[in-house]
Amino acid sequence: MDTAAAGSSSRINRTTVERERRMRLRDLYSHLSSLLTPQPTKMSTHEVLEQATVYVNQLEIRVEELKQMKLQIEEEYREMTSGRRIISPVINITDLNSTLEVNLITGWNTKFKLCDIIQILMEEGAEVVTAAANHNAGDRIIYSFHCQPISSRIGIATSRVQERLEDLIS
Description:
Radius of gyration: 38 Å
Number of strands: 4
Structural class: alpha+beta
Oligomer: single chain
Strand content: 15-25%
Largest sheet: 4 strands, antiparallel
Helix content: 40-55%
Strand order of the largest sheet: 1-2-4-3
């Protein structure tokens, strides 16, 4: 009788363990289902697992895409901050009798401001008629100035403007 009672007790114990295991699995499937995008109808356990597998695969692909994007951005940043993309400034001054045109092409690594250029032009007798800055030229900034002499009798010292601007940008 003891063996029969022990066998019955062991059977009840196994049944209880199995019931708890199924309840735990049901709770886990329910939680997994809640993490997926909402579906109009209730999904079977098999469908939940398939949907979760597809979703995890999509996330893995997205993670790889984001890693590649991060590497690309880091590389571009290193190139911009390293010596490979430093652009030496270029000045072009054209004296058109009564007007002076100053064009300056430089990189983003400038150590001067737009007001510094205008100040030099004004100190050398030029009235700035128009000033433009193009920041949409990739890794360059293009400044363009059109000037007239403050006094037509004195004019603008073009060579002095060139010299001072070169000192400024170097």
